[in-house]
Amino acid sequence: MSSLDEKDNAVPADSNAQASLPNDTSKDKMDEKENETSGFIIFFFIIGLVASLIAGWVIFPKLLYSKKDQPINFNHLLHMAEVDDGCQSCHFLRTDGSFSGIPGLKQCIGCHDEIQGESKDEAIFVEEYVQKGREVPWLIYSRQQDCVFFSHAAHIKGDGMDCVTCHGHIGESEQTRVYEENRITGLSRDIWGKSISGFNANSWERMKMNDCAKCHKEAIGKASSVQTGKEGCFVCHK
Ligand code: HEC
Ligand code: HEC
Ligand code: HEC
Ligand code: HEC
Ligand code: HEC
Questions:
Q1: Taking CB atoms and a 6 Å cutoff, what residues make up the pocket around ligand 3?
Q2: Of all atoms in ligand 4, which is nearest to the CA of residue 159?
Q3: Among 116, 229, 70, 78, residue whose Cα is nearest residue 90
Q4: 119: three-class secondary structure by DSSP
Q5: Which of 6-15, 203-212, 220-229 has the highest mean pLDDT?
Q6: What is the separation, in whole angstroms, between the first and last Cα of the chain?
Q7: Alpha carbon distances (Å) from 8 to 1, 4, 16, 149, 173
Q8: pTM of the entire structure?
Q9: Nearest one of 21, 24, 58 to 197, comparing CA atoms
Q10: Average pLDDT, stretch 172-192?
Q11: Does the chain have fewer CB atoms within 10 Å around its N or its C terminus?
Q12: Mind listing the pLDDT tens digit for each residue in 11-24?
């Protein structure tokens, strides 16, 4: 007997069962069936909702951001114990008011002209960068797009603001964290923030235009140089 024949046999048996159904179903049973159907609809609605929430909150951000490691690990905590002048030993305002940013090799060579410890990262740093005279291509978490003008002097000197307000606790970290790059805009995730919903508990978790503007609005009272309105655009966009 072929499997086709088997199928043929099965169909009438099934349709018989179906045909006899309306005869012995009371109204109660019909109601039960309706409840069952709406139960199914709600069930699938919830499944669909949960699936799209997972897609939106978990999968989408994973797809949107590519992860990059820093070229080598840099231990802030360790170095803070080695330098004399705190953060300013490496990050300082030059006499013209511009910010030195991330230190270059010449600020490291005094201690790292040759390998002094056991650390693998230090060995790579000395062999691949110091001895070859190559600057380390650090990835900058807070990098804004080119149209944005930002001045450290106005904030840290002018207003005496703490680095933590905008950068969080990088200065006390032992590990460089993974850099996440938005595949569409090419910007760091630190700009848009960790939370897709836009919720942020701390001032350093996001640095979008509204975050800069919010503080500038609040700061108007004490800082005359910060304006809002149309002219205000040129404070941050030259
Ligand atoms: C010995 C030099 C040195 C000292 C001292 C130092 N830093 Fe750094 N800092 C670096 C280097 C190198 C990097 C780049 C690697 C990295 O991102 O960790 C960096 C990166 C940073 C960044 C990341 C900026 C960005 O957006 O990517 C911040 C913020 C920072 N430092 C803050 C601080 C603070 C705050 C202190 C003082 C508590 C401090 N640093 C002390 C060398 C130093
Ligand atoms: C005042 C001296 C001093 C200066 C300046 C200094 N370092 Fe270091 N660095 C040290 C010491 C000490 C260690 C620990 C070495 C060990 O025993 O492993 C270290 C360790 C390191 C390591 C290995 C840390 C790890 O996470 O495993 C790296 C990478 C490094 N330094 C990079 C830098 C860079 C980049 C600069 C310049 C921005 C710099 N250092 C400036 C003293 C210094
Ligand atoms: C937590 C508060 C705060 C945040 C966040 C903040 N600012 Fe400011 N900003 C200030 C204050 C206060 C001043 C005025 C300092 C002064 O005039 O002495 C200022 C001044 C400035 C100035 C100089 C204005 C001038 O006329 O010299 C620029 C440019 C600027 N901010 C850009 C930005 C940008 C871009 C961002 C976001 C990436 C930002 N700020 C985030 C508080 C903040
Ligand atoms: C008001 C917010 C704010 C404060 C306060 C602040 N920063 Fe920044 N920082 C920024 C922004 C925004 C950028 C990115 C600037 C850009 O892309 O042009 C940045 C960039 C940096 C960089 C990378 C710069 C580069 O191009 O190499 C370092 C390092 C850094 N900050 C360290 C510090 C340290 C150290 C302090 C405290 C002394 C500090 N910042 C205080 C907002 C801030
Ligand atoms: C306090 C600083 C600040 C002020 C004032 C400000 N901006 Fe911005 N703006 C930013 C920052 C930071 C970004 C980049 C981060 C982002 O996209 O939110 C940005 C991004 C933008 C962009 C998006 C550019 C792009 O390519 O994605 C536009 C457009 C813009 N601003 C227009 C304006 C206009 C118009 C005004 C005046 C009404 C203004 N901004 C005032 C800080 C500022």
A1: 144, 148-151, 154-155, 158-159, 165-166, 207, 211-212, 215-216, 219, 223, 225-226, 235-236
A2: 5
A3: 78
A4: coil
A5: 203-212
A6: 84
A7: 11, 6, 13, 77, 72
A8: 0.86
A9: 58
A10: 93
A11: N
A12: 444 444 444 445 55
